[in-house]
Design a protein that fits this description.
Strand content: 15-25%
Radius of gyration: 25 Å
Structural class: alpha+beta
CATH architecture of the largest domain: 2-Layer Sandwich
CATH class of the largest domain: Alpha Beta
Largest sheet: 5 strands, mixed
CATH superfamily of the largest domain: DNA polymerase, Y-family, little finger domain
Number of strands: 14
Distance between the termini: 57 Å
Strand order of the largest sheet: 5-6-1-7-8
Number of helices: 17
CATH topology of the largest domain: Dna Ligase, domain 1
Helix content: 25-40%
Shape: globular
Length: 441
């Protein structure tokens, strides 16, 4: 690195709640979050359900986030009796996340706080030394305030930019509670960790890097940035810079920019769903495809666009030899009407699905989106007056659902037992919403 280049030198704190969902449930039950063995499970009635969060004490038994419920069921009876199993309540967790954010506002103004996720925030604490003391003293005060006011334990990583603060949190802070790293400390504190532990590197990228002989963050930093850029494009160059702790992304963002429209409209809008069980019957599958088409069409209309290309994705149960199929076709004219979308989706589905094959995943997408000019494509084979009236009807339905909540007006078939829409409407972020006032077991 060129020593004459100036890099950002701020006081960035990355604040992460410890096993957030699990800590929330412990708080609601007046249980100590660091010593209670508790797991938040997506569905307690299915042994293959995913563990959404495991408390620190439960992690010591080998049960991690993304483990399966049956792994807890395989533990010795003595251990199982000490474990508290609960289903998620996303609305309650969101309320608690806001409470944590309210505490952070006691240390920095809203425009100095960047919400990264429901349980993680970046804070620019530059210039607050006289108010709260040194980095470690400030971090300790933040930890104490959050614990006393919300009952949620947090860990903090501190660095001169977002990347270093996040890396030192993930690699050292989650074990030490508070960890600090400057530019001069990157090699000593971060480079010995395996490449898979680096923020921004997933399983596939890890495999590609391992094939190049890059096993640690230090190996990545020692590689030629030109080679990484040639192999992985701009992502490769970005990862190299992050391995050295170089990052110019802002922590403070003008909130008005979050609501400004951009010229880069989405080219494809889609939605997929993993079914809770295998679907074998055509009518059941058609119902789900209808609901997916309705969701996609509504989102396309909300973006004031229409689409030219229909995409269908189908995956079968893992118990059969065929994996599934993916098909697409170009429409004779662009649309955002779910009836037309469903018609063409079924044209893709019916000739490729063999009667009785178990379907476990379905996705529908509308691509090659273009702005909706508000005009009507005249047809020689349809009643154009009815088409225009339907377009106005869909706009009215969208307006009601936007004002009073998604699903306020929906098809009657969505109340059938095989419907996925009825179940998804109760969900937040793909999991049961629940509420803080739910009855505790």
């Amino acid at each position: 690195m060129n020593p004459t280049i100036s890099f950002p030198d701020r006081r960035i704190f990355c604040v992460d709640s410890v096993s957030f969902y699990a800590s929330c449930e412990c708080r609601y039950r007046n249980l100590p979050p660091l010593t209670t063995k508790l797991a938040v499970v997506s569905d307690l009635h299915r042994s293959g359900s995913v563990i959404l969060a495991a408390s620190p004490a439960l992690k010591q038994l080998g049960i991690k986030t993304a483990s399966r419920l049956y792994q807890i069921e395989q533990l010795p009876s003595r251990e199982r009796k000490q474990i508290v199993l609960v289903e998620p309540r996303m609305l309650a967790y969101m309320k608690t996340s806001i409470e944590v954010l309210d505490v952070l506002h006691q240390f920095a103004p809203p425009d100095a706080i960047r919400i990264y996720s429901i349980d993680e925030n970046f804070i620019d604490m530059s210039g607050t030394e006289r108010l709260f003391g040194s980095d470690v003293e400030t971090a300790q005060k933040i930890q104490t305030a959050i614990w006393q006011q919300t009952g949620i334990p947090v860990r903090i990583g501190i660095g001169p930019n977002n990347v270093i603060a996040k890396l030192v949190l993930d690699l050292r802070g989650k074990r030490e509670g508070i960890a600090r790293c400057g530019y001069a400390d990157v090699s000593r504190l971060l480079h010995d960790f395996p490449i898979r532990k680096m923020w921004g590197i997933g399983r596939m990228m890890e495999q590609h890097l391992l094939a190049l002989g890059i096993e640690t963050i230090g190996d990545l930093a020692a590689a030629r940035v030109e080679d990484l850029h040639e192999r992985f494009g701009v992502i490769g160059a970005e990862l190299w810079h992050h391995a050295w702790g170089i990052d110019s992304s802002p922590t403070i963002i003008n909130p008005l920019t979050l609501f400004q429209t951009t010229s880069d409209a989405k080219r494809t809008i889609g939605h997929g769903v993993t079914l809770m069980r295998d679907y074998y019957q055509y009518e059941q599958i058609r119902l789900v495809l209808s609901e997916l088409a309705g969701d996609v069409a509504a989102r396309v209309r909300f973006s004031n666009q229409v689409g030219w290309t229909v995409h269908l994705g189908v995956r079968y149960s893992r118990h059969v030899t065929r994996d599934g199929f993916s098909k697409q076709l170009r429409l004779p004219y662009p649309t955002a009407d779910e009836r037309l979308l469903l018609r063409y989706v079924l044209q893709l589905f019916e000739p490729n699905w063999l009667d009785g094959e178990p379907v476990r995943f379905l996705s529908v997408a509308l691509g090659q989106l273009t702005p909706d000019q508000g005009t009507l494509q005249l047809s020689l084979f349809e009643d154009n007056t009815k088409v225009w009236r339907r377009k106005r009807l869909l706009k009215a339905i969208d307006h009601v659902n936007l004002r009073y909540g998604k699903g306020t007006i929906r098809l009657a078939v969505s109340f059938l037992d095989t419907s996925v829409a009825k179940r998804r409407l109760r969900f937040v972020g793909g999991h049961p919403g629940g509420d803080l006032h739910d009855t505790l077991p």
